Amino acid sequence: YFPKMIEITEVGPRDGLQNEAKFVPTAQKKQLIEQLVNTGVKRIETASFVHPKAVPQMADAQEIVAFSKSLGIDFLVLTPNMKALQLALAAGVQQIAVFVGASETFNERNIRRSIEDSLQECADMFQVAKQHNLFVRGYVSMCFSCPYEGAISYEQVTRVVRHFAEHGVDEISIGDTNGQATPRMVYERFAKLREDFPSMKFIAHFHDTNGFAYANTIAALQAGITAFDSSVGGLGGCPFSPGATGNISTNKLVELMHKMDIATGIDEEKLQLASNFAHNIIM
Length: 283
Ligand code: HMG
Ligand code: MG
Fold this sequence. Notes:
This protein is α/β, with parallel strands linked by helices. 44% of the residues lie in helices and 17% in strands. The protein has an eight-stranded parallel beta barrel, surrounded by eight helices. Helix 2 (26-38) runs antiparallel to helix 11 and helix 10 (250-259) runs antiparallel to helix 11 (268-281). It is globular. 3-hydroxy-3-methylglutaryl-coenzyme A binds at residues 15, 18, 48-51, 54-55, 78, 80-81, 83-84, 99, 110-112, 139, 141, 175, 177, 205, 238, 240.
């Protein structure tokens, strides 16, 4: 079983750039976003409202959000806490993304909260977000294994998924943050998630640290997943996940899908131009 088309959320400007030590000038970030829009990709995660000391690369989020709005595109912004949600509301963002780890240690390193506290804060945020008619994505990170804790159980993942679902999340992105999942783990975990949460929309968010991200994509497709996150040119990583490399590359993902007669709505040549541009600005 394979779908006729998949949906791609381009996360390069956020997940891709956040790991780059050298600050990419705001003007170049804007050019990258414009080039991505030209590829035909439907939705882009363009920025995050995080502490500039934690992730200096995202310090220009306000300006990037204003630019994304001016383009009239479908875009998402990461908001780890209530303060970030307030900034997003003030900036006129319409789609936010919260992120909580399935692993306690990672969550503490990433957003300096216990999972319990993060879930509580998310419940409050979802309420405010819904009052303002925002679309809410929930990310669950380290859904297969964790660089600090090793194997992650299905129950650790569903603890966060269930909480998100009960509080009205619109979609959930399941992250292999450190890129260590195997196709079998991916197939089994997504199949069970779909069985246990039949009305939830799940997205597969793969990092390619171990080179298995494309195999994992096929396993996710076979488990019925048709929405994926990817990053132009495979940029990225997470500064709080030691050793993790880039996201699955949008370019290779699109090529693979097209060769399998699965539509993406993305123009491969324009995507190559965007990828060349992305690699030039991070050099
Ligand atoms: P904190 O220090 O615990 O925050 O940071 P706090 O509430 O204790 O406040 C301390 C100070 O930070 C205060 O300022 C706040 O105003 C300020 P002061 O009064 O001392 O001047 N503050 C903020 N400033 C800007 N933006 C904010 C904000 N919140 C508080 N939102 C916080 C908590 C979450 C903000 C911090 O730890 C942080 O920014 N962490 C960065 C996390 C991050 O960006 N990680 C990477 C993205 S996640 C990821 O990549 C995974 C994903 O791709 C999926 C996957 O692969 O699995 C999504
Ligand atoms: Mg990620």
